[in-house]
Hints:
The protein has 235 residues and is of the alpha/beta class.
Amino acid sequence: MSENKSGKPLFYDPTEHRIRSFVTRAGRLSTAQARAIEELGPRFCVPYDKAVVDLGQVFGRSAPTVLEIGFGMGETSAKIAAGMPEKNFLGVEVHTPGVGSLLKLIGEQQLDNLRLVQHDAVEVLTNMIAPGSLAGAHVFFPDPWHKARHNKRRLIQGPLVSLLASRIAPGGYLHCATDWQEYAEQMLEVLSAEPLLKNSAETYAERPDYRPVTKFENRGLRLGHGVWDLVFTRV
Length: 235
């Protein structure tokens, strides 16, 4: 999430009168992550720019492009990209260790269909992604901000969903997942209220085969915790 001067994250920045998703924060890099950034960053990282990018030029080919917001350490992103080599994947993440981690996986697995942008996702969507240019978007396990007084800091809220929907081509999809039931209920309400989106299920969807089960998710499932997937189609 974005942060104010006190360091507390905000979803809406009243000083700039626009929605935000994150701001870059420093993190501790491992030697391997730093090496991956130095060696692979120039090839696989796309610099932020206040101009629409040519996705075909970014990837060196024309293919359906799926955007992921907040890929964390990148294990899921790498698995999805490896399983769908026919698609391009553009990951947006602000935390440097996560960028380094995914770059390391890209190098180890020789994944040529992944590109990364280290920047605020709202600004990337607003300035770099053309309307109707995405085949899909993934938002997996965003911070639930489970305390009621922190709910306003959640990523999945109306303004961002509207922005995301405008960047997805008709027939494309938005896939969100969470392991926090109350957040799942809010996601369902917010996504259902967006006129450009239609639920692919009556309520929650079965986990699509392309989304792997993470080790944390497996641990939660063994403890009886639920996981909720929401897959909406762009109309």
